[in-house]
Amino acid sequence: METVRVLVADDIATTREDIKRLLFFEEDIKVVGEAANGEEALRLAEALRPDVVLMDINMPGMDGIRATELLTEQFPEVAVVIISIQGEHEYLRRAMAAGARDYLVKPFSSSELAETIRRAGASQKKRQARFAGRPPGSAAEAARASGRLVVFFSTKGGVGRTTLACNLAVALAQQTGRRVVLVDLDLRGGDVPVHLNLDSRGTIGDLAQESDLADPSLLESYLVPHFSGVKVLLAPGDVAAGEAVTAEQAGEILQSLKTNYDYVLVDTPASFEGPVARALEMADRIIVPVTQELAAMKHARVNADILQRANLHLKMRVVLNRMCTGGISPRDLEKTLNLALWHTVPAQEAVVLAAVNRGVPFVLAEPGSAVAGSVFELAGRLAAELAGDEKEAGAGGKEREAAAPARGPRNLLGRFLGFGFKPLTAS
Question: For 201, which DSSP code?
């Protein structure tokens, strides 16, 4: 069993003692040092080289945010976990943007503390292993595969697209340590800012008006950092600005994000229109949420037909969301829809609702809950499958794609209009 070495940075001595007491019986975690401020934390980090630093935000002299920024610059092998109190969301956001790997809200239990330390330490080790021996600008880095695009799609509202997208984005970032961006493509008023407690400043509507959508620095200036480490491209706050975003602009933006991020997750509205169609066409995976309601089941079948006719059905993964014992069973649902369920997320309405009202994803607010565990499992399964795609493509897996039926010259929405279909909206 590998031991995780921890440095505790907090200006209150009793808090440091409490943390040591909570970790006393954890055989794989050892507190190797204590610091009362940011300057001392930096000195001890250099001398002790801990695996994880537990960093308080409010400390005299150099605060936890500045200390986190310097720690991640000078000692990239060290994972920083922020310790905060309720109501410090803005500080948390800044600290996570500075490079912190996770956070804990006081008061916390011994199990929450230990699991967060283990998760941060393991994630940092994976990150270091991936980039070991690859200097910036190396051939290996230049040959890095394009990021993977995952689109959440359903023409039925209320099936949990946004909740799943936000929590899965955070879970992917936490589990893989990779660069994750979440795009709110609900251009008539997306709810991602509510779920993540973010302010809508620069949006995809503003970005679409720029002349060079492939400029990485320009792109980055429109992304809002979430304290989990996920970057977010928000939807416009007004309908007119959203309607001005074309399918071509959406496609350019998504392609640029794929170039600069490992995972690009896209939340969509309950409709099938130009920008959504373009995202589906570009997707590596399309997650179709369904619930145990007749209307949702009907739309799931419609969505499957849409993707089938567009030759996108092999990318589709159906996720049963909010599963409860009182509804139709997963097996009967599969038979009724003639679709295989890829994953099941249990119903925990109280946990999910409380998290949404707080603006904190439940995978962070209640990581030990059944619903959070299921989403972490989904994140691992998705990452593994997408990694398998990369290996298969490298071994010649693209041959099957080349052998697929030709789709014709028109874009996805145009093909449907040619078949006599009209854009579908939520009923």
Answer: -
Nearest CA to 158 out of 52, 262, 297, 55 is that of: 297
Could you say which DSSP state residue 107 is in? S
Instruction: Identify each DSSP E strand in 123-179 by its residue range.
Output: 148-152
State pLDDT tens for residues 347-384. 999 999 999 998 999 999 899 999 999 999 999 999 99
User: In this predicted model, what pLDDT tens digit does every residue of 150-202 receive, in sequence order?
Assistant: 999 999 999 999 999 999 999 999 888 899 999 999 988 889 999 998 876 67
How far is CA 147 from each of CA 170, 259, 263, 272, 416, rounded to the nearest angstrom?
Answer: 16, 6, 5, 24, 28
Structural domains of the chain ordered from first start: 4-131 (3.40.50.2300), 145-418 (3.40.50.300)
- In one-letter notation, the amino acid at residue 18 is D
Residue 396: which residues within 8 A CB-CB, separation 6 or more?
A: none
Is there a contact between 79 and 174 (Cβ–Cβ < 8 Å)? no
- DSSP conformation letters of 203-220: BHHHHTTSS-TT-HHHHH
